[in-house]
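Recap for those who missed Tuesday's class. We walked through two folding examples back to back. For each one, the amino acid string is listed first and its predicted structure tokens come directly after. Nothing is annotated here on purpose, so try labeling regions yourself before you check the end of the notes.
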Amino acid sequence: MRDHLLQHLLADSANKYPDKVAVVFKDKSVTYSELDRQSSGVALKLQQSGIRKGDRVGIVLTKSIEQIASLFGILKSGAIYVPIDPSAPAGRIAYMIRHCGIDCLITTSGTLNTLLSHSENEIVISTAIVIGKDGDELPHGNTAVKYLIPYIEARGDTTEFQPMDMSDSCPAYILHTSGSTGNPKGVAISHLNALTFVAMAAVFFNITAADRFCSHAPLHFDLSVFDIFVAVKCGASIVLLSEMLSTFPMKLAEYIEKEQITVWNSVSSVLTMLADKGMLERQNFDSLRLVHFSGDIMPVKYLRLLKKHLSKASFFNIYGQTEANSSLCYPIREIPDNDSWRIPVGTPFPNFEVFALNEDRQVVSRPGEEGELYVSSSTVALGYWNDHDMTREKFVPDPRYPFLEKTVYKTGDLVRIDESGNYMFSGRKDHMVKSRGYRIELEEIETVLSGHPEIAAAVAIPIPDEIVGNRISAIITAMTGCFLTKENLSRYCASRLPKYMIPEIMEFRDSLPMTSSGKIDRKKLREGIGAPG
């Protein structure tokens, strides 16, 4: 069977495990054969709506079986799926739609009405496929609305669906990350980029059809690639975790035991919260065999608790970026007594090559020496969608082999090598930080704040936090004669930024400190957070 495209993973498992449960959400589930048929129904609907190979289709759905079927349906139609957070501000969604040239959305009726009612954001799409209602195709302004009845009830004929023949170099999906211009960046990932990681991870972590993945990450977050495609490749079950449930640690602990989860993959802050407030001693986690954490620093005191109560599980610290997928890992075996121990990000996965260059552009090889990390692998993304300048800046020729046309990803992360040969994360070269597993470009927050008509200057500062990684503080000076409040600015940010990027702390100063070169002294601001202005 062909296996060079992501949708082939589903077809293969539907053939091997037709009656095996593929996806579970709340009290509903579908088998692999049902998921394969339902996604083909989505593909047929898309093709009938005029979607062709290479078109971008937005998925604006919360966690659901329909979301997974839509993803594979888009891939089967030959299109590129673009997951969009339904809770994101309308202006941000409008930008993604315009920037990616999305003409078709798969969404719900309520979400569609909300989006199209924000006419000031100029959301223009030609077709919307609405989930959950069986009815006639109706216009909504200039948008043709086509209804698709709930998949688990659908029994329609999909014989008209025409599978697309493509190469693995074709884009499969676009994931958006924070951008320094005030708008998100769309990372274009090919089928080969994703499949290289998926095939490696399935073998490296010994995934089988008996596994049950807890899919915690939202679809627009890159951790979902492991949860969905590695599970489908191996015929495992994907147990979708409701967004609401993940905020209640005790209920989350109960859920892991009740659903007999074997594979857990999340940002560190979720596990930290689980260790701190989940009352782990009340549950039995004998089914859990594999725990991945990434995105934030994991405090050792919480890792020790997790290892104690999730004693049957192997723990791995995973490092990577959307632009190159997960590239390094560190297996947690022994935990030092020292709570200040920083967990290494480890060594490369098989079929990955990473290297670091110091300020002299020489490869770092000695313990303690610091350099910027580069990733070399067929997982390195195609680039940033519709942004040639940023692509040229970050996806660069391999500096070690200037005579070859080989592209590597320049991460912007500073690392050093420890005495055991593991990479240790040292920090960022730019102003990007991680909070709750999300990569946040501080300049994007500053750009949004500076756009407020009553703000003279604004700086976003990360405050290290052992629970969420970093909390964001904004230091603000107002225009002369203006009076700003945190409540008003929070509302202003909420209409322009996703929730995880809204500064939790806002301080108002008469002026901002400057360096001798006339730049804002960020170091002094970090040292003086909470001090009078």
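Example two. Treat it independently of the first, because the proteins are unrelated.
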Amino acid sequence: MEALQEGLGLIPVTAQILVCRGIDSVCAAQSFLDPSLDELHSPFSFVQMEPAVERLLAAIERGERIVVHGDYDVDGITGTVVLLLALRAIGADIDYLVPHRVDDGYGLKPRGVNRAHKKGAKVLIAVDCGTTDCVAAARARELGIDLIIVDHHEPGDEIPQATAILNPRLPDAGYPEHDMAAVGVAFKLARGVLERHPRGLRGTTLLKLVALGTVADMVPLTGENRVIAYHGLQTMGETVNPGLRALMDFSGVRGRITSTDIGFRIAPRINAVGRIGHPKDAVEMFLADDPGEARRLAELLHKTNAKRKKIQDEVIEEALKQKPRDTASVVVVAGEWNRGVIGIVAARLVQEWGKPAVVIAIDETGAVGSARSIPGFDIVGALRKVSNLLEEFGGHPQAAGVTIRSENVEPLREALALTGGKELELAMQQSAEIICDAELDFETSLSYLARELERLGPFGIGNPQPRLLCRDLRVESQRVIKDQHLKLRVACGEQSVDAIAWRRSKLAEDLTEGVRFDAVAELTINRWRGRSDPQLELIEVNVDGPVTIA
């Protein structure tokens, strides 16, 4: 720890956090704090990158039509745009299509292949889908379309036949990074093609979009993902892309962009059109050259997101009424709800109940569900155990989608309630533990400390925001915001700082003026209307004594 302090000029708290996260040498810490683009792996580490690149270069040379089939979330949308921009830059005849969540459903379907065929596709690139879509792959072969799959979802028992499959989760993929977003894999394909093309472009300007999709898809921000997110966020505020610029304006994001800005401001507006609108509006926004058109589409995303929030809040209120029994392992709730918001609702139920949750929307066409898990528990593995009740399912260990017959919803509820075992028990135990990275030293300027801790970002899975034990805070003032959040001004030693407790307005009854308390908190920088002030985001509060931590 002393070596990091002396070698890099870090204060003790920051050095301690790095060491606890396994970064215990000056060289490793320097690489972590200032990752280099040279750390990006070669695209050709993928075993099947060579045939993918060769086929695309041949298509460009012959003037053959390439069609990109994306997905309706941020990852799929940005992956689609990355390939469109990269291949258009070297003269490709390229078009795209993205599915509608309700009309088309998730994944590459034969219907989607037919649409690509009507567009004149000779090569079809499936982005953020395709790994389990064997029927659609067969349809592509029937139509004489060469299929390239660019994905990151868990493979099934059968692997589709394709010209190339680029998926780091395949056992024989050859790629050193396992947990990538689909946009990251799309970026690798783009880089591979650009590298072999005579123009020799590097494609690093695409990193802003790659970072956006990577952070939004909540993959671990370690290794190569960290390099991508770090460099993309560093320059995102300076983007010349009219669509991204307009979207940031409507999101209220300016200056330095953080992973929090993406997760809570930018990404929800993109996802909104994929949930209750059409994702093509987001694709067209990013592709727009005209600032006026880009702004019109960004405003559409903004208004759609406001509508999404209203629908989401109504569904959450209804879903919370279906509180599970205490013995249930995985929770299932169902109702006649909008399919576009069930993923958000599932994530909220996980927060409320501390258990994996499946939210199912039922309508006249059938039933579809979205599942979210807690860290350490593989929800896809749980669904695999009850697959006899499902029509389709797939996803990641932390998030999945299902299609199910309406009459099987109740049997699924009962079956998943008994699923979990020791794996879930251990995951729930770990998620309930409050782990602190360090104790807050009030002798250090909180403004200085907040800025130094910010250097450890981008934060996300695999590299969480540091949590600090704060002893003997004293309430100077308090107010409730929007009937949900509690905003405080607290004294800590000789300093005072703002503090916020999100969705915990009930704490106002205990945290009255003059009350002293201990807390676990994240020290962040609140940027608002040109100001940048330190702020404690309260995770756990105890007014009766010390906070119990692991």
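Answers for example two:
Residues 56 and 135 are 23 Å apart (CA to CA).
The first helix runs from residue 2 to 8.
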